Here is the input.
Amino acid sequence: MTVVMDELLAVDGLSVTYTSRRDSANEAVADTSFVVPAGRTVALVGESGSGKSTTALAIMRLLPARKTRIQARRLILHDDTEAIDLLSQGEKRLRRLRGSTMAMIFQQPQTCMNPLLTVGRQITESLQLHSSLSKKDASGRAIELLEEVGIADAGRRVDCFPHQFSGGMLQRIMIAVALAGKPKLLIADEATSGLDASVQRQILCLLRDVQERLGTAILLITHDMGVVAAMADYVCVLDRGRTVEAGDVSSIFGSARHVVTRRLLQAAQRKL
Amino acid sequence: MSMSLTMKKLLGGPHRGVGAGLLLAGSIMLLGLTAPMLAFDQPIVCHYQGQLCFPAMVASLRNLPLIGRAVPLSRPFGLAGFDAKGALDQEAFAIWPPIPFGPFELADSPLKPPSADHLLGTDDRGRDVASRIIHATTVSARVALCAVLLAGVIGTSIGAVAGYSGGYTDLVLSRVIEVFVCFPTFFLLLAVVVWFEPCADYVILLIGLTQWTSIARLMRAECVRLKSRQFILAARGTGISELRLIGRHMLPCALAPLCVAMTFATADAVLIEAGLSWLGFGVAPPQPSWGTMLRDAYDQMRAAPLLLYPPCLMILAAVTAFHLIGSGIRKTFDTRTSQLCEVRV
Here is the structure.
């Protein structure tokens, strides 16, 4: 792995084991290493079951503590001044990091928004967790955020419930929720998989726009090499929980060495 | 907007019972809250010693939960031993409640049959039964509602902690719930009540502390189900605290089944209170409650069988009302599959 000067997230030798039953242990991530430089996009690609999502949840420390064992040589997130070892943080500190330093958006936005709260409430909730905004300021900021992610007529739509939006719009709103805490790292777990091609392109444009404006680093989790080509600066290929190939995007596309990478590339070409 | 939609769905839906139940339960509550305005041995408004007084109104306000205790007595009308009927001039201005007899007032000779003066007759001590049944509503409704509120708070919190935490916490709390389910509630209540003076507050406490199990089990099941949902994971991803996560995101989704359980629990609480008071272990005797009135009537069954009807009908009405509401909500929201929280995908 190339050494990058201003690394934001360093993952080295990460392994995650699901220990749901006493005797059987399932190692979902075995040995994954990559670095996310500040303000750049890293794509984590692999077939389904290769440990991409588990890696993301391990970084967010959202895996259930009782049923998983996370180990790593290094799992460091750089805040403004200090390097934070994510593995040794208590739940309280992690809660403060989630949403403010690192945020995550998921696939299938329809299932990721609370159906009983208006989207405005969900954005203001996220806002108020990480700032001392008053209720009124927060709802004003929520409308601004909705406008920023391209929701037309945001002032009125802020009081709508999730079921009143389309999937693409909900994904934009999820991004607004994630951006509420001004994160330095945005993890997008298959953020565009459930959407049709044109909406997919719009969401990717939005993410790139966000990155340019706010300097947010993006960890893009996907199996679609087309998305990788459009978005990523660096690529890390996973196979059965191990990093099998890593490098900048041109070298991966130019000379893919590993069979998984080639297979994913072929799949993308055939689709086009 | 969603609130009015929910109400429309409840009242206009195929399960009209909810409307009837709400109406019935509402009138019982209203009866309980305004009891002194309907039947009291002091006037609603009167002119006494050069001052306008509102004794029955003040007494009604003092019935309100929580803030009631803060309302000052309208002296000397609220004081013990003050006889408004004797003290007030016959010519003085006074508006009396429709039934001008108090629940403790010895109004007439004992066991009089219903007449124009006493709509439901008088009991074995000569107290007006109509007045007593109205004031009994205050006591019984307060006991049932407070007990269910207590059971709801205990059940929801224990269920939420068990369901959300999982693991050993869940294991231990679930066993605790099961142990409480296994208690024969009524006999436990009897055994405990023997040690205390019978009093409405103990009845509230006892019903509340034993009837929370069904609510806890329900809340636990809902939390287990909700815990694995994506939007809960997504909410955790924003750095929300666990208390807020349960309160803001999980509790609202579990509200429909909880409402059903709470309404059925209210009906149960009415019955338990009546049963305990009937046995003489509940509300203390001079105080009217549906149970104590039933006891008094039972003792005079041969002499005045008509006395049995008022308390029986009130208990029946209350239990029916809450069952109608409960089953109506359940059918409307079909909590078995709980479509309320399911998102179209």
Residues 1 and 200 of chain A are 30 Å apart (CA to CA).
